[in-house]
């Protein structure tokens, strides 16, 4: 069978066994180790501690590998975000006395004094895709977690002879502070189903989350507690004020305790569904997605789902690299997450309930991060229907938006307005340019232009009038100008494809706005005032919130014009100037403490910060200057220093899969520097062999010859046996199936990719493409 023909993935079980959810749970990775399925609505995971929002950065995922106690298991988490929220519907199994507060911890996360939290040891933990287990030392309880798309399933094995309880804490939150919970409710329905809700004021204000919960055995007793006051005053009779007599309770600080007779050796199962719509919606999800109680079958189904998803890429590499890559692939498949009930209803950014028509609504879009590599990767490893769902979710959210624009950073359907740019635009554009079915391109273009022309957003009024964002009116103006210009170029690509030439011409002109903020005297992109002058004084090393740049400095941001790197080279004065500046960035002697005041700048190699997205394309820029071998050198430097198979294996926030997607692409030997161009810049491979099992049923293989520590340069590249004339691979070439072959050698090949016509796409050199 030829490599271009369809074939089943041969290594799905191998892929599953190499994905390690513990990678990134320490340091700045901010991943969680708990149970979820690909793009699922449930992320059921342990929370070790929560902190006041001003101190919550390190606990953005709820769990840190460094901690030594667990407060409970909640059902919603972000994977690798730089901001915290969620931690909804937390349960804690208890054997013995019940406390209603989690208690305190010391600096190492150990339990101090009384409280319901429990100590634990890592040698009792098991973390696999779709399954997590741990022994709670204070209680002797074995807790196991698994999930499907809308339901989390717990299995608790209690020690015989001790009272068994399950505590529900609706006050618990990640990104915690007094007053976050605006209101909450718990009710026990006549059939024993426990339902409830809470509304929170966190990252997304006014977020409503509903739940439904059932036990595999009826509780022998229960208590519903409002911890705001010694005696809850909201009940009409003294009997109703008895926590054991209540069937419903409302307030801002609720807890519920469910008691069970001695379980002996019989585990207790708890299943929890969530909904952004209503309690009845959560009950419907529970009934539709998990009518039964088979924990092992649910775990097996989660394993199958992950095995099939990870089997989209077959990898032959060293054990460490294989673990890094399959874990990275695992992390790329957790967001955007499903945010729709089984009946098709979902909550939109207008906080109203809508019904999906012909697609599944997803949310949790960290777009400033993920447009760069995550979404381009998903077009290669996910079915077209899934990628169409992502795009259609963005378009639907725009149509529900009070402002009529696409999401910026959304979760559970709501907008946070976090980060800059209108980066849903390149996600939509890249999918359309790649011909993904199921997207109304005309409707999409309308959504993109509406976002790009909403003057009140982020200095866009000045940007449209002046050609740059004015720093005397808007912070981080240099970064915003550069990012808007790239987004505009992707709009022009779609408009040109649809025959909307007037729109295309307008946005092609706007895509050149990066030139307006590039200072040829200093060689940096700089912020301009509304009068056209550059802001003074200027310090290229300065980084910080409220500066000219977003989460970076002039070194990290000045060379972000992926739509026209050839134009940048012209402004700088030639190839040599760009190469010298890139070398100065990577080779600089920088004290990491100089960035300590900016949380997200990490993974430093000189002034290159791999732990943050603005640097992610920079190693590939040498290719645009005709020196691919320099890219090959830098990629080795980055891969070897920034990723390893352990809890601290990610040097920065994974940012819902962007850090991981960068590694997957780079290890395969190519990277999408300019999403929307349908080109991938060739770097160098870090695998002996890999096969992409493509959405269209074809297979695309990457093979290497002589790959080892001594042979780190690309000597030659062929596609289906023919030499590649350019230092790029096109999307069409990949989707056709075939074999990309690298011959590695010890010395750089300084001729391949040198000629101007061999270099990647740029507006200045390929204006009509």
From TrEMBL:
Where is region (Disordered) located?
A: 1-30, 747-769
Instruction: Give the domain of life.
Output: Bacteria
One Pfam family from the record:
Glyco_hydro_92N
Keyword Zinc-finger on entry: no
Name the InterPro entries for this protein.
6-hairpin_glycosidase_sf, GH-type_carb-bd, GH92_a_mannosidase_put, GH92_N, Glyco_hydro_92, PNGase
NCBIfam families per record: aman2_put (TIGR01180)
Task: Spell out the GO cellular component terms annotated for this protein, sorted alphabetically and separated by semicolons.
Answer: cytosol
Alphabetized, the UniProt keywords read: Glycosidase, Hydrolase
Query: Which SUPFAM superfamilies does the record match to this protein?
Result: Six-hairpin glycosidases
Kindly list the residue ranges recorded as spanning the membrane. none
Name of protein: GH92 family glycosyl hydrolase
One GO biological process term is: glycoprotein catabolic process
Give GO terms: molecular function aspect only. Answer: carbohydrate binding; hydrolase activity, acting on glycosyl bonds; peptide-N4-(N-acetyl-beta-glucosaminyl)asparagine amidase activity
Domain (Glycosyl hydrolase family): give its ranges: 282-745
Q: Which Gene3D superfamilies match?
A: 2.70.98.10, alpha-1,2-mannosidase, alpha-1,2-mannosidases domains, GH92 mannosidase domain
Q: Which residues form the Glycosyl hydrolase family 92 N-terminal domain?
A: 20-275
What PANTHER family does the record tag this protein with?
PEPTIDE N-GLYCANASE PNGASE -RELATED, SECRETED PROTEIN
Query: EC number(s) on record?
Result: 3.2.1.-
Natural source organism: Coralloluteibacterium stylophorae
């Amino acid at each position: 069978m030829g490599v271009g023909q369809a074939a089943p993935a041969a290594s799905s079980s191998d892929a599953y066994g190499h994905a390690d959810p513990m990678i990134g749970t320490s340091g700045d990775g901010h991943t969680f180790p708990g149970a979820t399925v690909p793009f699922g609505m449930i992320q059921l995971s342990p929370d070790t501690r929560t902190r006041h929002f001003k101190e919550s950065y390190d606990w953005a995922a709820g769990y840190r590998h460094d901690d030594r106690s667990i407060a409970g298991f909640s059902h919603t988490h972000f994977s690798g975000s730089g901001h915290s929220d969620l931690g909804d519907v937390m349960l804690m199994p208890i054997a013995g006395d019940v406390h209603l507060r989690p208690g305190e911890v010391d600096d190492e996360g150990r339990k101090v004094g009384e409280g319901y939290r429990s100590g634990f040891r890592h040698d009792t933990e098991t973390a696999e895709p779709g399954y997590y287990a741990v022994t709670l030392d204070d209680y002797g309880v074995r807790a196991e977690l698994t999930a499907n798309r809308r339901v989390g399933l717990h299995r608790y094995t209690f020690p015989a002879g001790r009272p068994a309880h399950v505590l529900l804490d609706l006050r618990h939150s990640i990104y915690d502070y007094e007053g976050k919970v605006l209101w909450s409710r718990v009710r026990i329905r006549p059939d024993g189903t426990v339902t409830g809700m809470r509304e929170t004021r966190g990252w997304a204000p006014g977020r409503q989350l509903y739940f439904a919960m059932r036990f595999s055995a009826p509780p022998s007793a229960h208590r519903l507690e409002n911890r705001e006051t010694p005696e809850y005053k909201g009940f009409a009779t003294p009997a109703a004020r008895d926590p054991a007599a209540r069937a419903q309770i409302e307030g801002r600080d609720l807890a519920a305790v469910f008691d069970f007779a001695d379980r002996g050796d019989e585990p207790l199962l708890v299943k929890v569904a969530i909904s952004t719509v209503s309690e009845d919606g959560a009950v419907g999800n529970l009934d539709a997605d998990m009518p039964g109680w088979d924990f092992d079958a649910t775990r097996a189904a989660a394993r199958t789902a992950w095995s099939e998803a990870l089997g989209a890429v077959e990898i032959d590499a060293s054990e460490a690299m294989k673990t890094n890559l399959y874990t990275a692939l695992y992390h790329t498949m957790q967001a955007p997450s499903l945010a729709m009930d089984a009946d098709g209803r979902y909550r939109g950014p207008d906080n109203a309930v809508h019904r999906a028509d012909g697609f599944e609504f997803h949310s949790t879009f960290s777009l400033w991060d993920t447009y760069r590599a995550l979404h381009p990767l998903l077009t290669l490893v996910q079915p077209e229907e899934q990628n169409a769902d992502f795009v259609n979710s963005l378009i639907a959210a725009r149509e529900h938006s009070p402002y009529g624009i696409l999401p910026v950073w959304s979760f559970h359907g709501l907008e946070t307005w976090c980060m800059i740019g209108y980066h849903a635009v390149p996600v939509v554009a890249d999918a359309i340019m790649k011909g993904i079915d199921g997207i109304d391109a005309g409707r999409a273009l309308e959504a993109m232009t509406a976002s790009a022309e909403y003057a009140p957003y982020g200095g866009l009024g000045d940007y449209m009038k002046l050609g740059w964002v004015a720093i005397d009116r808007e912070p981080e103006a240099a970064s915003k100008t550069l990012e808007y210009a790239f987004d505009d170029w992707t709009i022009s690509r779609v408009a040109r494809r649809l025959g909307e030439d007037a729109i295309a011409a307008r946005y092609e002109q706007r895509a050149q706005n990066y030139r307006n903020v590039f200072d040829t005297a200093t060689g940096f992109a700089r912020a301009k005032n509304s009068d056209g002058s550059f802001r003074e004084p200027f310090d290229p090393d300065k980084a910080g919130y409220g500066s000219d740049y977003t989460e970076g400095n002039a070194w990290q941001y000045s060379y972000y014009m992926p739509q026209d790197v050839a134009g940048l080279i012209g402004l700088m004065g030639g190839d040599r100037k760009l190469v010298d500046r890139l070398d100065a960035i990577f080779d600089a002697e920088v004290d990491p403490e100089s960035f300590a005041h900016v949380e997200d700048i990490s993974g430093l190699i000189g002034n290159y910060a791999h732990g943050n997205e603005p640097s992610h394309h920079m190693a590939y820029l040498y290719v645009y200057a005709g020196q691919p071998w320099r890219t090959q050198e830098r990629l080795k430097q980055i891969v070897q220093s920034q990723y390893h198979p352990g809890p601290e294996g990610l040097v920065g926030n994974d940012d819902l899969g962007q850090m991981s997607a960068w590694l997957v692409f780079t290890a395969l030997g190519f990277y999408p520097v300019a999403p929307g161009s349908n080109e991938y810049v060739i770097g160098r491979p870090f695998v002996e062999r890999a096969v992409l099992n493509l959405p269209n049923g074809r297979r695309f293989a990457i093979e290497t010859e002589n790959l080892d520590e001594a042979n780190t340069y690309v000597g030659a590249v062929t596609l289906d046996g023919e030499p590649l004339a350019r230092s790029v691979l096109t999307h069409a070439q990949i989707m056709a199936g075939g074999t990309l072959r690298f011959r590695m050698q010890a010395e750089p090949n300084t001729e391949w990719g040198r000629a101007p016509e061999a270099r990647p796409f740029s507006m200045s050199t390929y204006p009509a493409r």
